[in-house]
Amino acid sequence: MADSGFASLPPHHPQCLGCGPDNPAGLQLSVYRDGDEVFTDLAFDARHRGAPGLAHGGAISAACDDLFGFVLYVVEEIAVTRTLTVEYRAPVPLGQRHRITARLHHRDGRRLHLEAAGVGDDGVTRFTAQALFIVVDIDHFSDHGTEHDVHAMFTQHPLRTREGG
Ligand SMILES: CCCCCCCCCCCCCC(=O)SCCNC(=O)CCNC(=O)[C@H](O)C(C)(C)COP(=O)(O)OP(=O)(O)OC[C@H]1O[C@@H](n2cnc3c(N)ncnc32)[C@H](O)[C@@H]1OP(=O)(O)O
């Protein structure tokens, strides 16, 4: 959904499982910033099926994890997931739109404590999540991605300027 008035945030990279527009198997999240929070509106579909008619818990977890990766724009740090906990409070029906909102709860050194909630159009909170992200530098990605891909991931990011790239 186009939420006019909110800043649209760029995907982590075009093939990202969570937000990459060029990944047909991905969630293709569109993420917006609202003050210190980020959010996405998502209706899980047949690709994300767990039990009949319901979203798979792993798909819900992936959506939360990726959305946490957008809080990094707010925090202005590069970080990766160390722990992720999802509370599945109620089944999530396929096709029902949920707004997932994430924010920094608090920071402790390199540790970013994050929290998120997924609320349906009907006002029901069906899942919440907490994560610990650890701040890293760009070199963290260099061992596994090609130099070109790592460079491409960060050249489109506002955080690039912080790293002097
Ligand atoms: C928008 C921004 C741009 C894009 C961003 C990038 C793309 C993002 C894409 C997003 C996609 C979605 C996201 C994804 O999919 S991210 C992909 C999934 N995640 C990973 O692949 C991460 C794999 N793990 C690692 O690489 C290492 O473990 C890291 C780098 C995380 C830490 O290894 P490192 O050797 O560096 O650090 P450390 O082990 O000494 O620990 C560091 C500190 O943390 C403390 N600690 C540890 N565990 C716990 C705990 N359970 N409770 C409390 N504290 C804990 C620990 O005591 C220490 O504290 P201190 O001694 O310093 O005080």
Could you name the key traits of this structure?
globular, 165 residues, 3 helices, alpha+beta, binds tetradecanoyl-COA, 7 strands, disordered C terminus, 7-stranded antiparallel beta sheet, Thiol Ester Dehydrase, Chain A
Q: Tell me the strand order in the biggest sheet.
A: 1-2-3-5-6-7-4
Please report the number of helical segments: 3
Specify the helix fraction band.
10-25%
Task: List the ligand species.
Answer: tetradecanoyl-COA
Biggest sheet features: 7 strands, antiparallel
Sketch the topology as an H/E string, one letter per element: EEEHEEEEHH
What ranges have pLDDT less than 50 throughout 5 or more consecutive residues?
160-165
Measure the end-to-end span.
Answer: 32 Å
Give me the secondary-structure category: alpha+beta
CATH topology: Thiol Ester Dehydrase, Chain A
What's the number of structural domains? 1
Number of strands: 7
Strand content: 25-35%
The CATH architecture category equals Roll
